[in-house]
Amino acid sequence: MTDAELRDAAFAVLREIAPEADLPALDPNADLREALDLDSMDFLHFMVGLHEATGVDVPESDYARLSTLAGCVAYLAAHTRAARA
Amino acid sequence: MPEFRMPSLGADMESGTLLEWRVKPGDRVRRGDIVALVDTEKAEIEVEVFAEGIVEELVVMPGTKVPVGTVLARLVAPPEAAREAAPARAPALPPPATPRRVTPPAAPPAREALPPAPPSVAPPVVPAPPSRIHASPLARRIATERGVDLTALRGSGPGGAILREDVERAAGTRPPAPEREAPPLREAAAAPSATDERAARAAERALATRRSIAAAMARSKREIPHYYLATRVDMARAVRWLEQENLRRSVTQRLLPAALLLKATALALRETPELNGFFRDGVFAPSEAVHVGVAVSLRPAGLVAPAIHDVDRLSLDALMAALGDLVRRARTGVLRSSEMSDATVTVTNLGDQGVETVFGVIHPPQVALVGFGRLREEAWAEGGLVGARPVVTATLAGDHRASDGHRGGRFLSAVARLLQSPEAL
Questions:
Q1: Per the confidence metrics, is the pTM higher than 0.95?
Q2: Which of A2, A69, B30, B77 has the most CB atoms at less than 10 Å from its CB?
């Protein structure tokens, strides 16, 4: 998946969790929990949604690396590539 | 004749808007069937019926806002009982509502529609409702406000669900361009009035929500003599156990600390029944069942506390699934009337917002509100040694009419004790 596709996948999941969010205006480096007012259940749903969309099963210890949109794209790009290789 | 009225879906509800009927005249309903979709300012609720019978007349039409207690539909007794009642019925009644003639004596499955009336008889008073429209609550709301016909839309969401974008596109407030091609600046410049309108709508809704919460909380503070207790709970064992559990679980199966806190609360309530139940008409009635209302914050503002039923009997996995489902439906979907009205206690977990301690306001007619703050690392002294441990502050707001601080203290001790054996929860 390209970075743009990964970002769209993340948006699609976030839209389900926080339909009221203005995602196009989201700063890619903002903390998602802060910016979108996500609680721990929302964040878990986000991880589950990304797993469904990309096949990447993020371990709990890596959650911090997916705290921003840019972090999500980078992490997923690295892990979907690793899965293909 | 049984009637179906606008239910009270929480202490802060004074009126509700009927959004959709899920039944039509002639349908047979049983206790627990979902018959209507109601908007309460805070959430959309699927309303269950608590009578049994056959729908005779839908009194209130979709889109109408009515006070709690208003008759929404009239039912007739089910066939068995209807036979005796038949002579009393006025002969002038329209023929469509004569199900006992066509219903076999063996009860059909709930809500099975009866065969349509023959063409020679008068048409039913109410046209059959359109089949279920799959739309997000936000989309539905905007559609109502902007006069967009949802039945005419094709949804772009999962399973063809109608989303906000679909409605806005139909209403002409927003160009259908994909998000990335529409920089916020240009969009704002192109449609300033739409943006203003949206902001005004959100503000109006936030005000209504705030008013209803204020009314309920003012009533609580006026009527309930609250007492407050707090204790720090050592979460070292619980956190370690969770980490190990989650390490071997896929992301779809993981547990959150909230599941442990809810289960420990429910089990502790079994030990202190004077905190679990309803205070009504000057008397406290403890509840056998432990239905825990879970405070879910709504974005951008507001709060609902729908119940998870029988939390004390659920496994952690089942509880986690129920909690995830509840949060999801509270925010983006639909809640059920039983979830809104039968919580026997409420738990609020403001830990996600970073506060250490939360003292809640009891939701009448309940008599206790349990709070959990942020899970954090703190200095903890034990056996003459000080170490760093994960800690959570558990609080209780109790109703002095039903219990006192001594029993409340026992409850919090039980919560702390139960959390020391997470594997047993």
A1: no
A2: A69
Cross-strand bridge partners of residue B46: B37, B336
Buried b (16+ CB within 10 A) or exposed e, B296-331: bbeeeebebbbbbbbbbebebeebbebbbebbbbbb
Q: pLDDT digit string (tens) for B386-422?
A: 999 999 999 999 999 999 999 999 999 999 999 999 9
Cβ-Cβ contacts under 8 Å for B370 (sequence gap 6 or more): B265, B345, B346, B347, B348, B360, B394, B395, B396, B415
* B156 bridge partner residues: none
Query: Helix A69-84 to helix A40-54 angle, to the nearest 10 degrees?
Result: 30
Would you call B332 an interface residue with chain A, using a CB distance cutoff of 8 Å?
yes
- Angstrom distance (rounded) from CA B292 to CA B258: 12
Q: Both tokens of residue B403?
A: 């219990």
- Any CB–CB contact under 8 A between A2 and chain B? no
Residue B282, amino acid: G
ipTM of the complex: 0.88
Residue pLDDT, tens place only, B113-145 = 444 433 443 333 333 344 456 666 667 666 766
Residue A65 is which amino acid?
R
Residues B412, B416: Cα–Cα separation, whole Å: 6
3-state secondary structure of B372: strand
